[in-house]
Structures are given as structure tokens and as C-alpha cells.
Amino acid sequence: MTLTSKHTTTRVEFDLPEYCVRRRYQDFDWLKMKLEDSQPTHLIPPLPEKFVMKGVVDRFSEEFVETRMKALDKFLKRVADHPVLSFNPHLNAFLTAKDLNKRQGLALLTKVGESVKQVAGGYKLRARPAEFCAMGEYLDTFSQKLGTIDRIAQRILREQSEYLTELREYGAVYSSWAASEEQLQRPLEGVAGCVTTSCGALEDLSDNMSQDFLPVLREYVLYIESMKNVLRKRDQVQAEYEGRLEAAVLRKQEDRTPIPVEVEKCQDKVECFNADLKADWERWQRNKRQDFKQLLTGIADKNINYYEKCQTAWESLITVLQEKQTEDKTSETN
Known about the structure:
CATH topology of the largest domain: Substrate Binding Domain Of Dnak, Chain:A, Domain 2
Structural class: mainly alpha
Domain PX: 1-102
Family: Belongs to the sorting nexin family.
Number of domains: 2
Protein name: Sorting nexin-30
Strand content: under 5%
CATH superfamily of the largest domain: Arfaptin homology (AH) domain/BAR domain
Oligomer: single chain
Keywords: Protein transport, Transport
Strand order of the largest sheet: 1-2
Radius of gyration: 29 Å
CATH class of the largest domain: Mainly Alpha
InterPro entries: AH/BAR_dom_sf, PX_dom, PX_dom_sf
């Protein structure tokens, strides 16, 4: 699947003010991997799963393709809106390279930045600072809440699908019945029409849940894993610093040697990690509040719209029945 995305920028490092690029999923995966390697102290937005997305069964369906494209476009916008990631040379390459599949001219970029993978070696973290412990606890709780909501939403979606199947059959019975009941034809056709309207309203409600509600939940589940990964990297850097510092202190006590420069560099890494992580945490919280306010408002609007459509349809049936009753009384009188 290929995504066409348009990106506008005023940055001087870009040759053009606007780019329209066509990229495949593996190109986004490449960008995410390079961002993680070159910006290890920052939270990298998650990508949607490659093959399976909850709420979507057929990965070749139009619904799945559209949901995937929206998620990938959101990933790119989140990266482009980040005050640090937006300056990353790999993003520049992603937006400007004519053929990412051949990777021509991109090999040199693989060495940009410094990865902290396995940086801790044999060092063991003594204690995570309180503020980062609080982050970890919040992520665990938030993950549990989202997991519960996701499971219930999945069940509701399945039940709505089963109900929709029954409802369509229910309406069809009234339509066929109306064909053989001349005196009841209008009321029966009215019921069938109300059921058809209710089916359409329920289908719209279910589509909103599968295409808009569930993908946001899933994105934040993946976001939690990304944030936990950054926390683990931060812990590795702190563990390395504590281990090197302890060894340096012991050597200083024995032969009065000064603290090595490597220890000071490790301390700088820890401070940089802490500052970047806290800044990204605050930005993530702001975005989360905004996203979920919008999501919940959308849920309310969709449910109100669903019930209003159903109510209007069934109220119109009452009018039909009343008119039919008046006609019958008039006929009896005559």
C-alpha cells in the first residue's frame, strides 16, 4: 500500500516549501527506525501495525486502507510538529528522496546520531527518580484502562454487527408482509422504512467506532509502549553513569586519581535524557488531552445523531398510523 502525503514547511534546510511524496509502509518503518537510532532521548510516535489492526478484518479492504493511511499521515504530522525531530536529516531524506526503496544516497545517514542500545552493559540501576517512577506507574494504569475500553468496544462492535444482521432481516419481513396485506400495507411499509433508517444509522455508528474510535485507542496503546521504551533507555544511561561513578570514586579513594572525563560525559547524557524525556512527556500529555477531548466529543455527537435519526423515523410512523386510523374510521362511517 502506498500513501501520498503533502507536507508544507518554512525550514531553510528544505529546498521547496511544499512536498508531495508517495511512500510505502516500509518507508515509514525505515524513518521510525532511523529516528529511534539518531534521537534516542526523544519519544518517537508509533506506527500502526503492519498487518493487523483491531476493528478491521480484511487488510485489503477500502476501510483498512483508509484507516492505515490516516494513521501513517498522523505519524508523519506528529514527527513534523516535533521541535527536535522535525530537524532530523532522515525526515528530510524521507520527504525529498525520489526513491527510498533503492536507498540511494541514504547510506551515509545511518551513522547520524548515537544509539544507546545495550549501553548499560553490566551496570544495574539503583533506583529510578521519583518523577520517572510516577511516569511508569501512570503508563501502566493508562494501559490497563485503554485495554479494558478496547475489549469492551470490540465486543460492542461485534454485537452491533450481529444486531444489524438481525435488524435487516426484521425489516425485510415487514416489507414482504406488506405485499400481501392491502389494509395494513402503509403501516407495514412504514415499519420497514423505520427499520431501514435504523439500520443505516447503526451502520454509521459502527463505522465511526471501527474507523475513528478504535484506531485512536490503538495508537495510544502503541504510544505507551514507545514511552516505556524511552524510559528503559533513560534507565540504561543512568545505570551506566552510576556504575562508572562508583568505580571512579573507589579508584580515587585508592590512588587519588581525578574523576575521568567519561564519567562526566555519562552525567551529561543522563541530564540530557531527563530534560528531553520530560519535555516530550509534557508535549505527549497535551496532545493526549486534545485527542481524547476530540474523540469523546465525536462519540457524543455520533450517538446523538444515531438516536435522533431513529427517533425521527419512528415518530413519522406514528403519524402514518394516526392517518390510517382516521381513514378507517371515516370508511366505517360511510
